Amino acid sequence: MATPVALYLQDAHPIREAMGYAAYAEARGFHAVWQADSRLVREACVPMAAFAATTERIRIGSGVVDCWTRNPARLAATFSTLDDLAPGRIILGIGAWWDPLAAAVGVSRARPLTVMREIVTTVRALLANETVTFHGEYVHLDGVELDYVHQERRPKDVPIYVGATGDKMMELTGEIADGVVLNYLVSPGYNRKAMELLATGAARAGRTVDDIDRPQLVVCSMATGDSDAERKAALDGSRELVTQYLGQQPHIMKASGVPTELLDEIGKVLTWPATHEQVIAASKLVPDDVVQMITASGTADECRAKVAEYVRDGCTCPILYPLGPDVEGMIDAFADWTA
Fold first, then answer.
1. In whole angstroms, what is the distance from residue 238 CA to residue 217 CA?
2. 326 and 273 co-located in one domain
3. What pLDDT, on the 0 to 100 scale, is given for residue 99?
4. Is the bond preceding 273 in cis, omega lying within 30 degrees of 0?
5. I want to staple 97 with a disulfide (CB 3.0 to 4.6 A). Which of 3, 66, 142, 315 is the partner?
6. Is residue 339 in a domain?
């Protein structure tokens, strides 16, 4: 049986072009397409609606929206609306965002575990067609409901997934969420620890890790051919993204076993925001083995083999983030693929 595979879209392609990729992924049997809130470049819900309107079967998830900038009532209304467009196909993926971006726009990210628990609890209740009164540390709702007038009043089948990276957030996800969106640019070894943390959280709710869906973002930079030059170009394509994360989100890199010495060296020349020239200069410090440790990069066979590692270590559905120029070729390489 083919392994479920999904497509991840951020902001590298014009939205109309991305709509074509979503339709192509559906035609090739992909399970889902995920769209991120990408920094302050592209908001997720508008392209999600576009993908929903141009497909019939494929699931559409936010991978992820943040838990701070949308009031929980508005968040529930937004995803209820998406479900009206594509009933039973929408997934709400939500995360705790990151600094320094959050701080730069006035979000303190104080007590993220508490906030995530309150957001998931109240949004789930609103989507279930409940009237919600909730006075927590962050969320305050007083007799709030999705007050349909012209639309059918019904519970919305919108599962909630948490984009978790840290240990405590991973445990909380196991306890309260329908699924986890495992991060990209992590090593398969990171997955093994994540499974333990999810299981610990799941046990608090009388569940097991197998009750939690576990899709995972995987950077995929696939060579367009088998030559050494094409393979090098694929590795270099991932190397730039890896370099940005080494400098801007070292906590993710450290969790995957990237040497502290390399993180320190990158941090001396690359911060946020960074110019393209800074990224290129810093990327020369990043060796091939680090690139291939945390991405699926190289030939088609190398990419498939790396993705299979993530599946063996707990991922239930790889969400492929295409970095190469031939997105449809990458989709073809994973259509009907078995890990």
1. 14
2. no
3. 81
4. yes
5. 66
6. no
